Amino acid sequence: MKIAFYAPMKAPDHPVPSGDRLMARLLIEALRRVGHMVFVASELRGYGSSPDTFPERQAAGTAEAERLLTEWRGSGAPDLFFCYHPYYKAPDFLGPLLSSALAIPYVTAEASYSRRRGEGPWAHSQAVVEAGLRQAALNICFTQRDREGLRTVVAEERLAMLPPFIDCAAFTLARAGSFPPRLMTVAMMRPGDKLESYRFLARALRRCLDLPWTLFIVGDGAAGDEVRSLFADFPPDRVDWLGERPPKDLPRILAEGDLYVWPGIGEAFGLAYLEAQAAGLPVVAQAVAGVPEVVIDGATGILTREGDLDAYAAAIRRLHEQPDLRKTLREQARRFVFAERSLDRAADRLSALLARFEP
């Protein structure tokens, strides 16, 4: 099929790297891998950090939809409109209008919905999301948490699951393990949940300073100075700041580690966890949001209760002190990602889900 792909949160070629951008690119590659012709419908950003921008974003979306409708009627319409990650801050102003006008299926992936956003300042934006979900012929969910939210407005037969996935091709290396363990973290440095995760991690590691380890941090951003200040009182040989690195370097960097530590506050699921496991790193994270969808507690890592700093520090200590357990989890983590969460596996699943819409 000819598929129009749209990501209102962040276009696939947006200059700022993120898990959201990566997943958009992975979905496009998965669709192409099974023979679909995919093109980015628009780079218009529907995201707004404040509900006050809704009228302006809605007007821009309507104008863009009208432009595309004219263009597609002249050059040939797509067979399907695929929207990735619509939610109350980034509604899809294009897909529902275009799909209705052209009489083509509308499909969403990783949409999220919460009734509490239906009241208050975000109500207008949430109404757009809800209307799109109701119109969609299929809503593809990445986590059970999102599926439960969508069930409140969408019939079960128009919901389907697609577990988060990555391209495993670059993860050819894996360490045999070393001592002292090399702890790894890959995360942007920005205010909000990311900064809070760094804060939580620093507090936990401060309780483990009696153990020998080095933490390697990949990432930078607007909150970089504040993040670095959280570790300022650590001995200088304990934290190695690697800065922001291109995605192509991450498999090699991760393969040099022994343990991936990231609390995951507010993570939708976290593709970085899958990348770490593909490189053979057991994960220590919290059992919050969508993290349990990508890390299997006791099999590919250890998940602790949300906000339990003692348990989180104890999990790091346990894996530090038990190299045999690290080895077992390392092997299981790689096997899990390569067997269950690969790009090829996802492409086959997507192909099966979309087969009903093929002409």
UniProtKB/TrEMBL annotation:
This is Glycosyltransferase family 4 protein. SUPFAM superfamilies: UDP-Glycosyltransferase/glycogen phosphorylase (SSF53756). The lineage of its organism: Bacteria, Pseudomonadati, Pseudomonadota, Alphaproteobacteria, Hyphomicrobiales. CDD domains: GT4_PimA-like. It holds the Pfam family Glyco_trans_1_4.
